[in-house]
Amino acid sequence: MNSTIEYKCPSCGGAIEFNASAQNMKCPYCDSEFDVDVLKALDEEDKSAQPDQMEWETSAGGSWKEDEAESIKVYICKSCGGEIVADESTAATSCPFCGNPVVISGQVSGTLKPDFVIPFKLTKQQAKEALRKHLTGKKFLPKTFKDENRIDEIKGVYVPFWLFDAEANAQINYKATRVRHWSDTKFNYTKVSTYRVRRGGSVGYRHVPVDGSTKMADDLMESIEPYDFNDAVDFQTAYLAGYLADKYDVTPELSIERANDRIKKSTEDLFASTVTGYSSVVTESSSVQLTNGTAKYALYPVWLLNTSWDGKKYTFAMNGQTGKFVGDLPVDKKAFWTSVLGWGAGISAVVYGLMWLFTQF
Q1: Which residues in 246-267 are b (16+ Cβ under 10 Å) and which e?
Q2: Closest Cα to residue 227, out of 119, 129, 112, 115?
Q3: DSSP letters of 111-169?
Q4: How do residues 69-90 score in pLDDT, each as one tens digit?
Q5: Alpha-carbon separation of residue 54 from 297, 327, 354 (angstroms)
Q6: pLDDT digit string, tens, across residues 24-52
Q7: What is the pTM of this model?
């Protein structure tokens, strides 16, 4: 029984064969030539590649002490279902997510105590000033939207985050090309050289945050990153005084997939940044292995600002530590289309003028 080993061309992916004239492996599709030993080494390398392995120890958080539990109340929003934690001095409040009144449910129970908290550094007034700055210079923003009275609610909220630590060991293969052009008196030439580039190494990750609340959009929370963990302290209920805390409803186990995605993408981006000097670079394979993966529970400060305009609510978020501010804005459609039509008319006039100019010659 005869068996043959089939190799694929590293350049185009076609089946490659031995060429007697060249005494080398030659691709009949793109004419690339390779040494037999090189192709064998590449084939063995591909076969030895391992799939991603990303496992975690998720015993985050601790238990509430009896005196801590007694000093904390849980509020439930009847409108959106949000659960909010506050200190015992909070008599009544409104939901920071939808603005509706909330009612006291009881003392905190059935939930983990945070390991860390980053205390608020910026005030409510600074959040209002950040909103004004955010609105400045927006050409198509409705004028009435800038009215300060439109600010319905500003709440300082501690948002629950799961913080993931891990060591990432990665092996990544890239297909890279270099393109050279030249010409003579008869022809233009293009030479494309193809390379297999390999990167491998380890990267340590500390405190990779994943939002633990379904009420807070992940992209919104990631937009106000980063936080400086150097300001984090061991959690104490005293830090809740004057603020609210969102009660997590996403477990660390359910947050692992997002943590894996963030770590894998960060690792691939970091390694890809070292592959330079080529005309193009494409990732062919990627293997990321995680070791010593652990998760901790922390509360991070966020100022939430709810504004109203034209019957719609708009939510803005500001990092309560660094002041980074994000949020979508409405568009004055009339002003926008007036500008577009005016711009279009200007372009038409220029084109007409050029056509007239050229017809004179």
Answers
A1: bbbebebeebbebbbebbbeeb
A2: 119
A3: SPBPSEE----S-HHHHHHHHHHHHTT-TTS-GGGG-GGGEEEEEEEEEEEEEEEEEEE
A4: 677 778 778 777 778 887 766 6
A5: 19, 33, 62
A6: 777 877 777 777 777 777 766 666 666 77
A7: 0.72
